[in-house]
Amino acid sequence: FKGRSVMSIYGNNSTYSISDVDFSTNPEKFVFDSREGKISMIDYLRSKYRVEVKDRKQPLLLSIRKSRDGTEEKQYLAPELFCLTGLPDGMREDFQAMKQIALYTKLSPDQRTKRME
Asked: Which residue blocks in the chain are alpha helix, DSSP H?
């Protein structure tokens, strides 16, 4: 998962780049500070997004975002609430596969208009 991008399947469909998988914590143990005080990941997702984490013992994905001032912000993500995005490196290196994908993704304006009709 390192280096891959994931997209949330709840909320605003945010994307994150995965830096690591943290096997030392899980949604059940992970607690962070919020405006209301300390809250668990499970309670936060339930109250804010009405999402239930089914596997409470799964390891968390770690995403590190760098802000404009250069500081790093760690974000822990429950894997079951995200899906992988993009293409694996092996597929991107395969010329024939990329050629086939381009037939569907690189359309002329006329082709796009026809698909919309």
From this structure: 41-49, 89-92, 95-105, 109-116
Q: pTM for the whole thing?
A: 0.72
Find the Cα–Cα–Cα–Cα dihedral 57, 51, 75, 37, rounded to 10°: -100
The residue among 101, 74, 76 whose CA lies nearest residue 88 is 101
Pick the closest to residue 87 from 100, 69, 70 (CA basis). 100
Which among 20, 12, 17 has a CA at the least distance from the CA of 65? 17
Considering only CA atoms, give the Rg of the chain.
Answer: 19
- The token duo for 3 is 């280096």
As a residue count, the chain comes to: 117
Q: Which of 81, 75, 61 lies closest to 32 in space, CA to CA? A: 75
- Cα gap 25→23, rounded to integer Å: 6
**pLDDT digit string (tens) for 9-30?**
988 889 999 999 999 999 999 9
